[in-house]
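Hey, quick one: can you model this chain's 3D structure?
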Amino acid sequence: MRLNKYYSAAFLAFFMWGFFSFALKPLHLYPSLDILFYRVFFSVITMVLINVFFRKKIISENWSRFKQLAPKEQKKVVWLTLGGGFFLSSNWFVYIFVMNHVSVNAASLAYLICPIVTTVLAFFMLKEKLSYWQWVAVGISFLSCILLSFDHFQDIFFSLVTAATYALYLVSQRKNNEIDKFLGLTIQLIFTAVILLPFYPAYSGPVPSEPIFYTCMFMIVVFFTIIPLFLNLYALKGINSSAVGIMIYINPIINFLLAVFYYEEQVRNIQLFSYFLILLSIVVFNKEVLFKKNKKLFSTTKGAK
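Sure thing. Here's the predicted structure for all 305 residues.
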C-alpha cells in the first residue's frame, strides 16, 4: 500500500500540473515575470500562515529533531533544503526566460527531456539502480524527444538547462528526509522569494487591479504550486527520483490532449507517434510494479476459487 500511495501522489501532482494552462491562459496579457513574482510571493504568504496557525506543533518537533542531529547532518539538511530552493527558483527563472526569449517549443521540450535527465542524474549521483526494462523505457523516451525536436535543434540546449534544474531539484530532495516536507517546502519558497525580491522593483509592472488576475493567481498558488509541489516531495519519500521523474511525462501528455481537443491546435503525425512512445515508456518503466500488482490480484482471485 505504501508504494501505491507514493505513486498516486506523484501521479496526482503531475496530473494537476497538466491543467496549468486553464489558470495561465486568462493571464496571457500580463508579463510572465510578474506572474512568477506573484506566484512565489503569494505562495510564501499562504504557506507561512498555514504553518503558523495550524502546524506549530510540527514546527516545534522538527526544530527539536534538527537540534538533536549531529553537526554534519545539520549542515546536510540545510544545504539540501536551501539547495532545493535554489534549483527550484533557477528552474522557474530559466523557464520564464526560455518561454519569452527562445521558444514555446523549447519550454515544452524541457519537460519531455526532464525525466531522462532525472533518471541519468539519479543513476550517477544517488546510485539508484534501474532494471533492464527501465533502461528500455529511458531509451524509448529519448527516441520520442529526438522525434519531437526535429527542425528545432537550436532549442535543445535551452531545454536541457531547464530540464536539468528541475531534475537537480528532484534528485536533491530525494535525500532530504530529516524535516517535514511541507515545512521544508515553505523554507524553500521563502528562500526563492528572497532571491526574487531584489528584482521585483526593477522588473515588475504596475500592481494588477483586475479581479481575474487574483482569481487565477489563487488557482495557481493553491492548485498548481503548493499542492502539487507538496505531493511531489511526499512521493520522493517512498519511491526513487527516477520513478518520480518518469511521471513528469503525464504533464506534457495532458497538455498535448488539451491542445488538440480543447484549444484545437493542429498536430502532425510525428507528434502523435512521439506522444504514443512517451505513454509507452511510462508503462514500460513501471512494468514491474504493474506486473506485481496484477500477479497479486490474480493469485488472490485464484485462491478464492
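One thing worth noting: The longest helix spans residues 71-101.
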